[in-house]
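Narrative summary of target 7.
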Amino acid sequence: MRFLKITVALSVALSCLLPSNGYSEKDLRYQNIRQNMQQIFSYHIENKNFSGKIIQRSLKIYLEQFDPDNIYLLRSETKEFLNLDNKDIYKISKQYERDRFDTYQKANDLIQGSISRHRRIRNEIFPELAIVDLSSFKEVQFDDAVPKTEKDLKNRLKYKFMRMLAIREKKAGAPFSKHRREKILALYEKKLRRLESTYYFADEKGLQHDPKTVEHYQVLHILKSITKSLDAHSAYYSTEEASELRTSLKKQFQGIGIVLKEGEDGIYISDLIAGGPAYSSGMIQSGDFLLAVDNFNIQEATFDEVLEHLRGDEGSTVELLVKNEKNSKPVRVKLRREKIVLHEERLSYTYEPYADGIIGKIVLPGFYDNGEGVNAERDLREAINSLKEKGPIYGLVIDMRQNSGGFLSQAVKVAGLFIVKGIVVISKYSDGEIRYMRDLDGRVHYQGPLVLLTSKVSASAAEIVAQALQDYGVAVVVGDERTYGKGSMQYQTVTEENAKSYFKVTVGRYYTISGRSTQIEGVKADIVVPTEFAPYSIGEKYLEYPLSADSLDFETAFAEKSQYKNFQKKYQSLFHVEETQWKKMLPTLKTNSQKRLARDENFQAFMRKINGQDAGARLQIKKKRTAREDDYGTDDIQVKESVNIIKDMIYIDSRSSSR
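Modeled conformation, tokenized:
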């Protein structure tokens, strides 16, 4: 089984970056459900049909994807969909074969009723919330995760909105006026109606959707729930969601480069993409309010309508009417839509002097590739070459703490920069096919002390690189005790702009040269230096429906002995990696690090803070990446210790060489 678009990444979502893709035609029909699912089932590593297990999971997910915070549905209302017997399952499976989805439609009827109730409750409590005294507001915990009665639901909603207002007023430093609160609550009403619209089948203005649009949204929700029920990472996407994911994977999009948000005073520009048309014009600033798009007055428009007017093909123009708080007169700005590369989400690097050279520090946020020369491997190679121009590189820290993955091919190429030749990853598919991805160029772009800094959110492709370089003994892995634990691969259609449907589906597992899989267990750090994510329950094992952990026995993995013999002849020699000097010095490096951190007041304050022992702890460390008021330097402590470990590696290696 061979796939062109293999990714190993966690799902990500972006703010509205205004890509050029227009809204999709609302043309999904009930017969498309079985057609799409037959394709997805054929790819999936384990689940091959609409089984009882999938039916039960999908109905649960159908309700959860509408009400993830348990603020709409009552416990008694969901029982019939969560406690199916064999007769129910048989009935639903037979309906599926006839492209009928009565049970899912019944679930949507329940959802619509809960929306009507929710809106009635909001109408009852919002006037009271506009004048309630929040000076003595206190956090509370509810006994049950799901409300039992309407009274219980009303109390939860009242508390939810009171808490929101209390947090905002605390941040502002003073209570809001009644008028201000009313504007804030009106905005929340608008946003809630937008979220409800695809289930209630009416837009946020209350206008009913036409029958085709109703069917489209119903089918979309069903496809999402069935696909998600296959495992923790399979998913079905709308055209708009696919566009955002495509931007994340490729680090580029077409548009004018503005990020919009909706506030109680209107729609405003919250950020500009550096190098984009809006940024380059010099006439638009963050905080500007958007008043019109091509003479379309947006004052009464929905947020989605505004986005639709802003989208367009590359090379086309759009005129914005914007108003800055400093200028009373609105300004018209004409912009041409262009292809924009998201440089801020690409690799970055710094360095610090050491002896007559440097120690490089590289932040690798993902394994991206836009197919036009912008990719992680090229950026890393160029960064190493640029660092060499500053002087001899005595050590290198690659920071992957927030790297959630990306393209598998990029992970292999990145790992290949640090090994002479060898297998980086082995993949196994549902039909038993085994493939190995290798570094073939035989060139090493850096050979010296190398630390890979990871965390609990380092996942997928980041784990492939960390595990492979750890197995080969060319890098020391530093960070949280383990990484995320995602050892599966997905086939996806997201990067194909003209695909008939957008989905990703788990098609296989991957293993490194040791036969180990990172699934569930993750990559274990050689030296533990906890990050800000350490105290949280983050990882594959905390997700619903993860694949089980396993390993690969090469002798029994092949269907025929001849295949294994051929594998032995070609590749087995690459698996016998000698213990490197870095592996030999690990006990000393670990001991030195533990002693150093025990004496480091900043690190100890950091540990008390993340463990909740000292809410007033403040780290005496310079702010580097952000100017946030409460920046405790958590992004710097781990890098500082990684550099110290590099220095230990240099010193120990020099002493060994001189003997």
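Residues 11-24, 615-634 have pLDDT under 50 and may be disordered.
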